[in-house]
Amino acid sequence: MKRKRHTLEVWGDFACFTRPEAKVERMSYPVITPSAARGIFDAIYWKPDDDFYWQIEKIEVLNLPRYIGLRRNEVKNKADNESTILGWASGKNQPEPLYADATGEEAKGRTQRQTMALKNVRYRLVASMWSRRNRPLDAQEAQFERRARQGKCIYQPYFGCREFPAYFTTELSSATPVPLDMQLGWMLYDVFDLAATGHNQSRASISLFEATIRQGILEVPEYSSNLVRKAQAVA
Fold it and tell me: b vs e for 163-173, b when ≥16 Cβ sit within 10 Å of the residue's Cβ?
């Protein structure tokens, strides 16, 4: 089946696409991962009942990767459970803040971590909609195009961390991919099973692929491809 391709140009001041092998210290891949790129398309248009997923096909690197070291305060704790958060949202309980920048007793829930982030990033992302049930997606394609053209999004897209906002446009510049060739080794493909249906969509399922940038372009294999190594879903 021939699928329609959608292209966005995205940019931002900072980005961090954390390498999982770096453990607690955040070390970014030199280029955006397919899962982070998918998240930008999801932020513009995605509905769980539409039963489709975004397949990233190609990533063009428009600015050379440049790193910057940042030290940030992060919280070590998280809200107890979903019912606690729903109680805060409904006003039944008083919210209990988690402090990332505090002194005294409150500072015990804080930790400082080093981040090797990217700065001044710009990419051209190419993706297509894939139906999980082999259904036509003409209406969804039209809605995405309209929203993207008008700059609308469900939430602010971001580059790996929510404090690093991503901006997007469908009006593509004349910029060409940078002259960069790089073997990236195993790269995170996604953290969910993109082909799963129903409640299985929310289960964690790590996948990886061998990533290579050729003349500033990262070609992304289809999720169903044997080039993508997949793990068993985790309940």
Answer: ebebebebeee
- The one-letter code for the residue type at 144 is F
Instruction: Show the tokens assigned to 144.
Output: 């995405």
pLDDT given at position 95: 82
pTM: 0.85
Residue with tokens 């969509």: 201
pLDDT at res. 37: 97
What DSSP string describes 80-149?
S-HHHHHHHHHTSS------SS--GGGGGGEEEEEEEEEEEEEEEEEEEEEETT----HHHHHHHHHHHH
Ramachandran category for residue 74: left, alpha or beta (phi over 0 → left; psi -120 to 50 → alpha): beta
What domains can you pick out in the chain, each with its CATH number?
A: 6-70+113-230 (3.30.70.2660), 72-112 (no CATH)
Query: Residue 44: which H helix or E strand, with range?
Result: helix 34-44
